[in-house]
TrEMBL record:
A zinc finger (CR-type) spans 132-217. Signal peptide: none annotated. This is DnaJ-domain-containing protein. Residues 25-36 have a biased composition (Basic residues). PANTHER family: DNAJ-LIKE-2, ISOFORM A-RELATED.
Length: 436
């Protein structure tokens, strides 16, 4: 039985553990306690260091044997006795392959002036961003214990300085880095859990059990304001966990717009598609074409005498997204008109001769006729597929027209379209054909 089991305890293994067990335990713990994974735990970096140091000793059969025999004292004279942070940083730089920035994780000494901020992704619908919304949510956080005001002590009891670490909250351990090299690492005092002082069980605050903080369930309200951009951060200042002696960090909600079935947003503009029939394309329409994000029906009438061609789009001025902070100012709503061709069933039900006499005439054969003319069978094909194969742009080649218009921060494109294609002094913003 080893004289000291502290290092085994750190890794959560019994002193009888095999090399493999130790390795596994360390891997698991290191993952769990990695400072990058525990941004809200100020102790994470320290825990991580301790485990790394313990593993370093226990994974080497020679140093493990020395430790088992005589504890930390058995691990040799060390490279320079207890030093300052320099030694420890040096040691850990070696552990982490030159990663001397290890101490930047925020633990291990540097005092923070404010608690850690917490960023929470928050999904919002386009409807919420259009109409605005107040959201109430239940949250849990650590707050200073109201009974002991954060001292952790019962009544006026004062904590006693920890004898083990002489009030510093940390101790040195010596570790073997290589067969002939030893280092000194600073590790959190296990006697006082890094506090530097200790309270007897009976002197601890009953409410927080000496922990200084207690968990509080709160109800927070955040406001999704009209027109907030995607990625907007709503900050609840000081709503993070409280710790004695430093102001609490913030809780930040980062908005992420969820996919919408019919509308796409580009800044303050909106885009949607509307299907019209062939009859409507030729003879015009006057009907409710969309249900807007606030539930309103939007009626549009096409100007008399205008034929709508495939790919034509119209602009509904002022029907776009509200501008954040100025919700009365709205962008525009662009509608791409998709023309639905009638199906063959319809064709069977009409008099084709009468139809032909109504429609513009068919194209005549080529003139002059090429010398050789082959008759080739008619087969349906998928042109999108063919293009996808020959263009490195990929299968979304045909979508790129929209992708570039609706890519992020592409509002300028819209402004250009504005002037060139849609505005017409006489039309007052009504649908207008593109110039040829
Ligand atoms: Zn308390
Ligand atoms: Zn101590």
């Amino acid at each position: 039985m080893p004289v000291d089991t502290e290092l085994y305890d750190l890794l959560g293994v019994p002193p009888s553990a095999s090399e493999d067990d130790i390795k596994k335990a360390y891997r698991k713990k290191a993952k769990e306690h990695h400072p990058a994974k525990n941004p809200n735990d100020p102790q994470a970096a320290q825990k991580f260091q301790e485990m790394a140091a313990a593993y370093e000793i226990l994974s080497d059969p020679e140093s493990r044997a020395l430790y088992n025999e005589s504890g930390m004292a058995g691990l040799g004279p060390g490279s320079g006795g207890p030093g300052g942070m320099g030694d420890a940083a040096d040691l850990f730089a070696q552990f982490f392959g030159g990663g001397a920035t290890f101490f930047d994780f925020g633990g291990g000494g540097a005092r923070r002036h404010k608690g850690q901020d917490t960023e929470v992704p928050y999904d919002v619908t386009l409807e919420d961003l259009y109409n605005g919304k107040s959201v109430k949510m239940n949250m849990e956080r650590e707050i200073i214990c109201s009974t002991c005001q954060g001292s952790g002590a019962r009544g006026s009891t004062k904590p006693k300085e920890c004898v083990h670490c002489e009030g510093k909250g940390w101790t040195f351990i010596q570790t073997q880095i290589a067969a002939s090299r030893y280092g000194t690492a600073r590790t959190k005092c296990t006697e006082c859990n890094g506090q530097g002082s200790k309270l007897k069980e009976k002197d601890r605050c009953k409410k927080c059990k000496g922990e200084k903080t207690v968990e509080e369930k709160t109800r927070q309200e955040i406001f999704i304001e009209k027109g907030m951009p995607d990625g907007h951060r709503i900050v609840l200042a000081g709503a993070g966990d409280q710790q004695p002696g430093i102001p609490a960090g913030d809780v930040i909600f980062k908005l992420k717009t969820t996919h919408h079935e019919s509308f796409e947003r580009s800044g303050s503009n909106l885009l949607t598609n509307v299907k019209i029939t062939l009859s409507e394309a030729l003879l015009g329409f006057s009907r409710i074409v969309i249900k807007h994000l606030d539930g309103r029906g939007i009626r549009v009438s096409s100007p008399p005498g205008r034929i709508i061609r495939p790919g034509d789009s119209i602009k509904l001025r002022g029907e776009g997204m509200p501008t954040h902070k100025h919700p009365d100012q709205k962008g525009d709503l662009f509608i791409v008109l998709d023309i639905e061709m009638p199906d063959s069933q319809w064709l069977q039900s009409v008099n084709k001769q009468a139809l032909e006499s109504l429609l513009p005439s068919k194209k005549p054969d080529m003139d002059p006729m090429p010398e050789i003319v082959d008759e080739v069978p008619y087969e349906e094909g998928d042109i999108v597929d063919v293009r996808a194969r020959s263009f490195p742009a990929g299968s979304d080649f045909f979508d790129q027209g929209f992708a570039s218009q609706f890519g992020e921060g592409d509002e300028d494109d819209w402004e250009d379209d504005d002037g060139d294609d849609y505005d017409n002094d006489n039309m007052g913003g009504e649908p207008e054909c593109r110039p040829q």
